Amino acid sequence: MLTIPQGIYREMVAAARAEAPLEACGLLAGRENQVESLFPMTNGDASAEHFSLIPEEQFAAAREIRARGQQLLAVWHSHPATPSRPSPEDLRLAVAPDMLHLILSLAGEEPKLRGFRIADGRATPVELEIQAEETDYE
Amino acid sequence: MKIAVNGDAAEVRDGLNVLELLAERQVKMPDMVSVELNGEILARPDFATTIVRDGDQVEFLYFMGGGA
User: Fold this and answer.
1) How far A95 CA lies from chain B's nearest CA (Å)?
2) Of A59, B4, B45, B53, which one has the greatest count of Cβ atoms within 10 A?
3) What is the spatial distance between Cα B67 and Cα B36, in angstroms, rounded to a whole number?
4) CB contact under 8 A, B61 and A55
5) Chain B residues within 8 A (CB-CB) of chain A?
6) Domain of A103: which CATH number?
7) Alpha carbons B23 and B64: distance in angstroms, whole number
8) For each successive 10 residues of chain A (138 residues), what is the average pLDDT?
9) Is ipTM beyond 0.85?
10) Chain A closest-CA separation from residue B67 CA (Å)
């Protein structure tokens, strides 16, 4: 289970819509299973079908996450026109250990966010909870 | 000698190169890792030839990307 404040979820949806038809991406950090911070990241591929984080931005985010006493919990990206399931490329490139992978699809009438733990090319769904009330976050 | 790895203090042997350091950190795919040494990103071909020095600040992180 990963808990995401409503405000952060809304920012993710807004970013996905703003970047569409390109994929949007970012990092989520917090404590335990509670997301507290969203780090919007540039899609280095600037593509509608691919994304990759830019290492310079990743290093900067990692330092800020440490400074906040948080941990990197998840990487998220949007699927502007396909379902929120890991693509073969998502499975192949998920090499970071202990990382959740969130996919936000804009393919349906409403945005659909799903989470996965991916290991050895296999994805296991992870339950996500979007907190109903606004929560303070950094 | 003493270095810092991803913000944590670490004691490593003299003469250790970056590739060996990653192996000690259980990194199985160094080709999928970016390394920053004292604030500068290190080119992957230099991992095996860059010796870690006392007091170095080493950061490493995994490639993150995918497709639709």
Assistant:
1) 7
2) A59
3) 26
4) yes
5) 6-7, 29, 32, 34, 36, 41, 59, 61-68
6) 3.40.140.10
7) 19
8) 97 98 98 97 97 97 97 97 96 94 97 96 97 67
9) yes
10) 4
